[in-house]
Amino acid sequence: MVGMKVYIPAGGSWFLVPIKNKAMSAQARCAAAIVAYVLLDEEQRPLKRKRQFWVRKWVKNRERHGLCVNLLREIRSDDSTAYKNFIRMSSKDFDTLFHKVTPIIAKQDTLMRKSISAAERLTTTTFLK
Predict the structure, then answer these.
(1) Measured in whole angstroms, how far is the alpha carbon of residue 4 from the centre of its chain?
(2) Does position 124 have pLDDT exceeding 50, yes or no?
(3) DSSP letters along 79-129, please?
(4) In this structure, are 20 and 61 located in the same domain?
(5) What's the number of domains the chain is made of?
(6) What residues contact 117, with CB distance under 8 A and at least 6 apart?
(7) Non-local CB neighbours of 110 within 8 Å, separated by 6+ positions
(8) Is residue 23 part of a domain?
(9) Domain range holding 114?
(10) What's the superkingdom here (predicted)?
(11) What are the pLDDT digits (tens) for 55-77?
(12) 108: β partners
C-alpha cells in the first residue's frame, strides 16, 4: 500500500492518506482531502473570524447629529450668506436642483440600514465640487 501526502489549507497541515495504487484520479484526491479534513481535531480547525460592523456608530447617529440635520438647517434659517458660501448656491437654487434630481439620487431603506437621504447626497456633491 502506498501513501499520498494531502495538504489541508484550513489546518495548515500535511496528512499521509493511504491509497492502493499510484494512479489516483482527481476525484479520489478530492475525497482523500475531505477525509483528512474531517479527521482534524477541533483544535486544529481554524477559528471563525469575528464579523465586522455593517453600519458604524457615527453613521447610525447621522439622523440626530448629522450635517443636514443640525448645521445646514440652522445656517439656512439664520444666515443666508453663510449658507450660500457653504453650499455654493442660494437656498432657492438648492431647492430647485433638489426637486429635479431627487428621483434620480434617492435610494430605498433596507432591513439592514436606512439609506442616505437625497438631501444629504445632494449636499455632499455640491460641497465637493
Answers:
(1) 41
(2) yes
(3) -HHHHHHHHSS-HHHHHHHHHHHHHHH-----SS-PPPPHHHHHHHHHHH-
(4) no
(5) 2
(6) 68, 106
(7) none
(8) yes
(9) 57-128
(10) Eukaryota
(11) 777 777 877 887 777 888 888 88
(12) none
Is the same domain home to 33 and 61? no
Kindly state whether residue 108 falls inside one of the protein's structural domains: yes
Within this chain, do residues 80 and 116 fall inside the same structural domain, yes or no?
yes
Q: Which residues contact 80 (CB under 8 A, 6 or more apart)?
A: 90, 91
Strand, coil or helix: 23: coil
Q: Is residue 47 part of a domain?
A: no
Tell me 71's DSSP state.
I
User: Which residue, among 86, 60, 61, has the nearest Cα to 73 in the 3D structure?
Assistant: 86
Geometric angle at alpha carbon 126, from 109 and 93, rounded to 5°: 100
Long-range contacts at 10-19 (CB < 8 A, ≥ 24 apart): 10/37, 10/40, 10/45, 10/46, 11/37, 11/40, 11/44, 11/45, 11/46, 13/40, 13/44, 15/39
**Whether 29 and 73 share a structural domain:** no
Asked if residue 52 is part of any domain, the answer here is no
